[in-house]
Amino acid sequence: MWYQQLHSSPACQSKENLLLRVSMHYKTEMEFTGENCEVKRINFHGYKATSSDVVLKPQVEEIGGGASSPGENGKSVQHSTMLEKLDCQELATMVHLSVTPEKSLADAPVWIFVSGLVPSQIVTLHALLTDEKGVRFEARAFYRANNIGEVDLKQAPALGGDYLGVWPMGLFSTLKPNKKHCRLMKREVMRSPFHIQISLYDGFKALISPSDVALVTCTVERWYVAPGVERFQIKTGQVRGALFVPPGPGPFPGVIDLFGGSGGLFEFRASLLASKGFVVLALAFFAYDDLPQSLKEVNLKYFEEASILLLKHPKVRGPGLGVIGLSKGAEIALAMATFLPQIMAAVCINGATYMNGASLRFCDLHIPAVPYSPERIIITEMGTIASLHVWGDPQDESSQASAIPVEKALGPVLFVVGEDDKSVKSKLYAEAAIARAKKYGKNDCTLLAYPGAGHLIEPPGSPLCCNCLMHQTPLPVQWGGKAEPHAKAQEHSWKEIQKFFEFHLGPPGNSNL
Question: Which residue in 201, 196, 39 sits closest to 128, CA to CA?
Answer without folding.
Answer: 196
